[in-house]
Amino acid sequence: MNLQDAVFNWLQISIVAEARPNDLAASETRDFFETILREDHRLERFIRTAGEETYIVEYEEAGGARHTKRFDRELAEQLLTDINSNPKYNE
Q1: Which of 25, 42, 46, 48 is deepest in the core (most CB within 10 A)?
Q2: Secondary structure of the chain in the HEC alphabet?
């Protein structure tokens, strides 16, 4: 999985895991993507912040290089929207 996809997937599932703290599958999936970011892409630190229209993900490579990626807020929150709109996941 390329870095862009891994960061975006981590962002989406971290939003879900935060909004649904009792959702074990969401927490486990977030942990899975954190492992991919750490092991496959050698990231040491990654954080997200929300703005009005975007999410910003800041991350640091093992060598110390820092990077920032911006993602459309609506796209980043789409997974949470889809889960919340499906009665199967809200019983």
Answers
A1: 46
A2: CCHHHHHHHHHHHHHHHHHCCCCHHHHHHHHHHHHHHHHHCCEEEEEEEECCCEEEEEEEECCCCEEEEEEEHHHHCHHHHHHHCCHHHCC
Residue at 29: amino acid letter: T
d(CA 9, CA 19): 16
Give 63's pLDDT tier (boundaries 50, 70, 90): confident
Q: Can you give the length of the chain in residues?
A: 91
Please give the Cα distance from 22 to 46 (Å, whole number): 23
pLDDT tens for residues 4-20? Answer: 999 999 999 999 999 99
Angle at 9 between CA 48 and CA 49, to 5 degrees: 10
Element (H, E) at 7: helix 3-19
Identity (one letter) of the amino acid at 21? P
